[in-house]
Known about the structure:
By secondary structure, the protein is an all-alpha fold.
Amino acid sequence: MTNSGTQSSPQVLLRTSPHLRDTQPVDVIMRNVVYALLPVCAFSVWQFGISVLGLIITCTASCVLTEHVIRKLQHKPTTITDWSATITGVLLALTLPPGFPLWMAVVASIFGIAVGKMFFGGLGFNVMNPALIGRAFAQAAFTVPMTTWVPNSAPSRFTEFIPSTLTLPFLRPNSISEWLAQNAVDGFSGATPLAVMKFEHVPADSIELLLGTTAGSSGETGALLILLCGCYLIFRNMMNWRITASILLTAALFSGICHAINPEIYPDPLFTVCSGGLMLGAVFMATDMVGSPVTPVGIWIYGILIGLLTVIIRFWGGLSEGVMYAILLGNAFSPLISSVTQPKRYGAPQKEAAK
């Protein structure tokens, strides 16, 4: 009402897009991702022992400390409370071999945060997944330790470290032959199911792959548990299920076609989906909100691309695993995918919308 007693005209409040707001702060989402990873970490420690526990603690502490120090050197407030550095450390540890030397894990963690994240401006500006950047660096710099595997469920895994874990910097990692003998591990070839299938054409049991009772990276075994943990994030609406679904479906379909053509060389779809790091990558790494496209169509293209590249690298590349490189390439193409799949503006002519 105005002072004269007459009713004023109604006011309309105009705002620019976006009109939908997410009530979940970034730190809440990131913290829930950490919660979802805790069962995977616990299972990894159960399978491989205190060496993996040391690896998780070392990588996480190194990532958090590196980000904190860089922010202080930039004279900016610390950002470690958003939990993103914690996620990077945990994921990096889960992608490393159980007996990976701890000092090498520190170097990979520093590289992943400093180069893969802070170099681009921090959270929200990184082009690729920092954990995979750290793993790619470790793959190039420490080739032998990155391809040295140990069996699961060793009897002394809770009472002593794997010998290579505590190797001093710049020294050759200790041999695990004596450790294997002490644990009465006979017939272990030192290869993962993926390597055995690729080079010897001997598939592993699908139930073992689902349950995670095989050799491999610290947290990449146990496909069923990883998928269940991802379902928690999907239920909380904190993960885009379309990315995971498109990756797994593409990998299963493509490998299924190859298996039908030559089943003696190419594994079946269940083996492809459950082996190696595909499940961990599809659930927790490719779904990174920063490195994935934002358009509805682009999300499916992104997932299909990663699924195809994973199978291509596994089947015809020199490595037995291809998930890491597939996701990094998917991250690199993500801006282009988002650009070419922008939806048409409502009411705009076709030629104008295409500009």
